[in-house]
Amino acid sequence: MAKNAYGQDTAGDSFRKQWDAAAYAQKAHDREQQQQLDEANEERRHKGLKPRTAAPKPAPPRDLLEARKASVNLDKMVGTSQIVQASAAAAGQPGFYCKDCDVTVKDSLSFLDHINGKKHQRLLNRKMQVPTETLDDVLKKLDQMRADLRRRERQSGTEYDFYAQVRKQQQLDIEARIRRRDAKKKSKLKRADAKNALDRASGVPDEMAAMMGFSSFGSSKQ
Length: 222
Prior knowledge:
Elements: H1 21-46, E1 96-98, E2 103-105, H2 108-115, H3 118-123, H4 135-156, H5 162-202, H6 206-211
Antiparallel strand pairs: 1-2
């Protein structure tokens, strides 16, 4: 098919510039609405009333939050300098620069908080809501995780044993309980030794203190 000097097809009237009729019709409608609003406000001003404002246009629909596909590598730019076209507020400041928001933050933790925050997500046309997962989505995710696990097993040459991992975790829990119990016993014995030493330092025998109705003549502070 023949083309003109602009690379367009010359079949029919395609060499002529194409106009978006719907867009221009919408512009004409908006202009007419604005003229009617101006006339109504002029009458209201003559009557001493406040002018009305046009209804705000509906905001475009925002996307739901999605999991980040690429990992955020915060170490690759450490110790380096980068020239960016930033505003006067963000220029000349050391830290992590966000080109979407034109802002510089001081450390990596603040940068992660920023890219996960509401302001950054709003500029990316996203709202702070996650999509509702269905049963099929959960099953697909489990199949993907199972496939990734098998792939890692083939690469490492070892097979994942679920029951062995359960036994290992149970043994770790038992050891942790034993350590907590021993620490509690040691703390109790230490408090008892301190109390006995305080009673001996007071110089009053325990039998005499018991006869007088006191458990000890020492300080009540442990």
